[in-house]
Amino acid sequence: MTITDTAAPAPAAFDTLRAEPSGGADMNLDVILDVTVTVALEVGRTRVPIRNLLQLNPGSVVELERDAGDPLDVYVNGMLVAHGEVVVVNDRFGVRLTDVVSPAERIRRLR
Fold this sequence. Notes:
Blueprint: H1 22-30, E1 39-42, H2 50-54, E2 72-76, E3 79-89, E4 92-100, H3 103-110
Antiparallel strand pairs: 1-2, 2-3, 3-4
GO molecular function, one term: cytoskeletal motor activity
GO cellular component, one term: bacterial-type flagellum basal body
Protein name: Flagellar motor switch protein FliN
């Protein structure tokens, strides 16, 4: 097969990009505001052999790979989004966010 036409392809033409008014962004966000997500707080992790796991009973202590006083990890749908500390409000546990993971860091963790 021989190519006889050596003409360069025509450059692509693109429409001019225009910024949407701020109202458009708010209307798009309304679509997801009622979506439910799972928020999980992780105090720490550890690996335990099944033999030791089967020996656990009330009063047993499982040592975690995290020091006392270290911040909790806050996950939304399995993705780390923040760090925080435990607080008690009206006899209920809660979390005070101390650091929020940047969007760039969240994207980096996806890869």
